[in-house]
Structure formats: C-alpha cells, structure tokens
Write a structure and sequence with these properties.
The complex is a heterodimer. Chain A is of the alpha+beta class. In chain A, 16% of the residues lie in helices and 37% in strands. In chain A, strands 7-8-9-10 form a 4-stranded antiparallel sheet, with no helix packed on it. In chain A, strands 11-12-13-14 form a 4-stranded antiparallel sheet. Chain B folds into 2 domains: 123 residues, 2-Layer Sandwich (Potassium Channel Kv1.1, Chain A), CATH 3.30.710.10; 35 residues, no CATH class. In chain B, strands 2-1-3 form a 3-stranded mixed sheet. Chain B is elongated and about 65 Å long. The chains are: A alpha+beta, B mainly alpha. Chain A: This is F-box domain-containing protein.
C-alpha cells in the first residue's frame, strides 16, 4: 500500500480488528495513529474482554545488578484465557475489563482483583464482574464465570449503602468481591448469593486504602503516605472487629536511614500466606516483612520514567486509551 | 460482466439495476445484490438505476466494482434471509470459504476494495477486508508499518520517541 492515503474511518475499521498487543505497538507509528488508537471511538469498538496480567516472575534472590527485573505483562488471548502467565510468585494481579462502560462518574471502572496468588500454574477460578447499571443503593451486575464460560445477569443487587459512597477499590477473594466505600465501610458482595454485607472499617477510606486477604482473613491497609497501618478482620459476623496487626513507617523502608529523600509509598498487595506486604516506593517495588520489620526484597526500576509507569501499569494494565477511561 | 442492455428485465425475473463505474463501464446486477450497499439501497428503493439510467459511481473503477459485485452477488441470498437463520451449515461454510478466497488478493486491490466498501457502505465487505488487512499487519513493527504506508523515514526526534515507546511498552514488542 505504498504512499496511499487511507481515510481515517477506514483506518479505524482496520485498527479495531487488531489485538491489543499490536495496538499498543502501533501507537508510535505516527501521531494520527496514536490519536486514533487512544480515541474513545476505537475503544468502544474493541472486543469485549481485554484482560491483562501484570506479574513478577523474579529471578532467585541474590541476582542483583540488573536494574530492570523481569516483569511480564501478558495479554489475554481472544477467548479470555491468559497466555503464558507463570504465576509462580506472589505479586500476581489480574485485571479484567469488559467493554468499559461509564455508568457512574464515581464507580467508573470494571475491575476485579482476584487473589494475589498461591503458587499455581494457572489462575484458578477468576470471575469477571461487570457493573452494568447503577441504582441509588445498588447496581445491576453481570458476572462472567470462567469455569462455565457463561455470563450471569443480576438485575438489582442491594449494596446496603449508598452507591455514591462506593469507591473503585476492590478486591476479590473466596467467591466475594470486597469493595471499599468512602463512608468507611467495606462491602462484601457474595458473587454466588449476590448478597452484600457491610462492615465498618477501623480507619477512613482514602485513595491509598486497600483491601486484601492474608491467610484467608480479610485485611485492610490504610496509609497516609508516610505510615501504613494494617488491620485484620477478626470477627466477621455482624459488627466487624478489627485488630491492628502492623504499622510501618517510611523510615523502616529506607534501609540506609537516608531521610533526605522525600519518600512516600503506596500499598500494593498482601502476600497471601506470609506477613509480607508489597509496597511501591518511588521507582521500586518492595516486599516488606512485617514480622521482621525489614525489606525482604526490592526490585528497582531503571529510570524515573519507567518507575512512574509501573503505577500506571498496575492500575491500568492496558494501554493509555484504557487508562483514559479508567482514570 | 459489462452488461449490454438486455431489454426485457422484467418478465418475472428479479429486478435488475445498472451501476456505472468511474471509467464508464456499465454493470447490470440484481437489485437485491446492489442493495447490500447502504448507499445504493435508498436510490434503488426509489426505483433508480433501472432501465437505461444507471447509477454512476464516480469513486469506483471497473476492476474494483466487479470485485465488489462478486461479493454482493455471493452474499445477497444470505442477506435476503435476514442473516440467514435457516442457512445450513454447508451454506455458511461455503460463504466462509468464498470470503477467505475472496480476500486472498494483492494489497493494492485490497486497498481499493476497502475504500469502495467504505464509500458504498457495504458493512460485511468492510469488515471482511479490514480483518484481512489487520491480519496482514498485526505482526509488523511500527517501522514496517511506516514503510508500508510510504511514510518518510522518521526524524531523529521521532526515532527517539519510537525508541522510548519500545522501552515503555516492551511487552508489546515481544
């Protein structure tokens, strides 16, 4: 097709048939390709499920000197099964997106984090939850079951609290989706029964707050950027009882005590079985042992630019145009 | 396929319309087939294109138009059945075989075809050709795409940007 001028409509038509991996690559063909690939229009035309897995299949401990470690991003193939994902390590997160919709300005994204994971070759049962419409205190929900390969519709799920209070921070574990709410609650949505239970949290919910599971118990992490507190739900029935398990400050993280750096960090994930949390401090991912209060492992990323990008990948594993609608 | 005036198009046979390519070749084709084109459909419904009139298509040359019509004629029966709910598996397999064969053509023809399909708004054909082109380019590097499209070589700045992109989206280049 040398030198031919292709109308933008035609080009869009073609791009819509490409897998996301090619699209990500073709962003840099030219500014106009980038614009089309990043456009809302194309995003709506893309196939239903785009899912990605960001995981770390780190080298054995002690391998140092390499600035950039092996982080792998795997795209789901068309039938929704992640390809080539060796989930042998703990920092595994799966993000699923169904055709991205924006039904509410607040709960804009369709995002599920299945268990950060036990050593297994494949992700086990990982449902995709899609909120298709909003009610004042609930939503209509579609759930994709990876075992049966079918979507189930639920017309009206009652959250038990105002929908506007719900945050977009979610965590999936044991057949239930845990959603943090700005009212200071965590809503446990049981995906089988489609019923919700609301539990009060021990600290306010901010954008840095996260829910997760460790040793089968729900945990809540809250940080102000300088100190991180981790609670565990001790009694699950009715009124939740939380026990403060850990508290860690920036100084504990900076091994050399160099407080000169204006360090802040973000909580990323719980280790599912050990008292280890994964934190994102600028330009490095840190595995911090909460019992020994020391950095167990850290993975530095090359430059500032790449470092900044990790956050983006973490939250929005697809390309910029997905990020646009999720951000 | 340049159709001579057959005079009697109307004795119980399907209604015919005449399309005129940019190089003035006349094509006579069943109205049902031409109606796969959203653009032509209204004109045809209004009774246009019949008799000696013909519908001029100034953007489509005869080589491309004959190819487009080949597609339309093949797909018209299924389309008339409203997506062919009662089509047999054999029919569908045959259409699929036809489609695969149909797009197995030179790049430049593909390009003319997708432009024509776009202008004439023939949805199935647009989608078919777009899929073919996508399959052809999906494994290429951005540089190869640029060359294929005849873009000038990147400036040093553009090259630097491309390199940065490659670093940032390493997973997409594996």
């Amino acid at each position: 097709m040398d030198g031919m001028e292709m109308s933008e409509d035609v080009l869009t038509e073609i791009l819509a048939k490409l897998p996301c991996k090619s699209l990500a690559r073709f962003q840099c063909v030219s500014p106009s390709w980038d614009r089309i690939i990043s456009s809302d229009y194309l995003r709506r035309r893309l196939p239903l499920i785009t899912s990605g897995v960001l995981f770390h299949d780190g080298p054995p401990r002690g391998v140092s000197g390499r600035k950039q470690q092996a982080y792998t991003y795997a795209c789901a193939s068309e039938d929704g099964v992640a390809e080539a994902a060796d989930m042998s390590r703990a920092t595994t997160h799966v993000h699923h997106h169904r055709r991205v919709q924006r039904p509410s300005p607040l709960l804009r994204r369709v995002l599920v984090l299945p268990d950060p994971v036990v050593p297994r070759r494949e992700p086990d049962h990982a449902p995709v939850v899609c909120f298709t419409g909003w009610l004042p205190r609930g939503a209509s929900v579609e759930v994709f079951d990876s075992e049966t390969g079918a979507w189930r519709d639920h017309a009206a799920v009652d959250f038990g609290i105002d929908t506007d209070a719900m945050s977009a921070t979610m965590h999936y574990s044991g057949g239930a989706l845990h959603v943090l709410a700005y009212s200071g609650h965590v809503v446990r949505l049981d995906l089988d029964a489609m019923s919700c239970r609301v539990t009060a949290l021990p600290a306010p919910v901010s954008c840095r707050a996260r829910a997760g599971h460790c040793r089968g118990r729900l945990r809540f992490a809250s940080s102000d950027g300088a100190r991180l507190k981790v609670w565990e739900l001790v009694k699950d029935a009715g009124r939740g009882e939380w026990a403060l398990r850990h508290e860690v400050g920036v100084k504990d993280l900076v091994a050399d005590g160099g407080a000169s750096e204006a360090v802040t960090f973000l909580f990323m994930a719980f280790h599912p079985e050990r008292e280890v949390v994964y934190l994102w401090a600028p330009w490095k991912l840190v595995a911090f042992d909460m019992e020994k209060m020391c950095v167990e492992e850290e993975w530095a990323f090359g430059s500032e630019k790449e470092g900044a990008h990790l956050i983006q990948i973490w939250l929005f594993p697809y390309t910029r145009h997905l990020a646009n609608c999720l951000a | 396929m340049a159709a001579p005036e057959s005079g009697d198009g109307n004795n119980g046979a399907a209604r015919m319309v005449t399309l005129i390519s940019s190089d003035n070749t006349r094509f006579e084709v069943e109205a049902a087939a031409a109606s796969l084109s959203q653009t032509l459909q209204l004109t045809i419904l209004d009774g246009g294109g019949g008799g000696g009139d013909g519908i001029p298509l100034p953007n489509v040359d005869s080589a491309t138009l004959s190819k487009v019509l080949e597609y339309c004629i093949k797909h018209a029966p299924a389309a008339a059945n409203g997506g062919a709910p009662n089509a047999t598996a054999v029919d569908r397999a045959e259409l699929e075989r036809f489609d695969n064969e149909f797009v197995n053509i030179d790049q430049s023809v593909l390009y003319s075809l997708i432009m024509a399909a776009h202008n004439l708004e023939i949805e199935g054909l647009q989608s078919l050709v777009a899929k073919k082109v996508a399959d052809m380019i999906k494994g290429k590097s951005p540089m190869e795409i640029r060359r294929t499209l005849g873009f000038p070589d990147p400036t040093p700045e553009e090259q630097a940007e491309m390199n940065a992109h490659m670093l940032e989206y390493g997973w997409a280049y594996e």
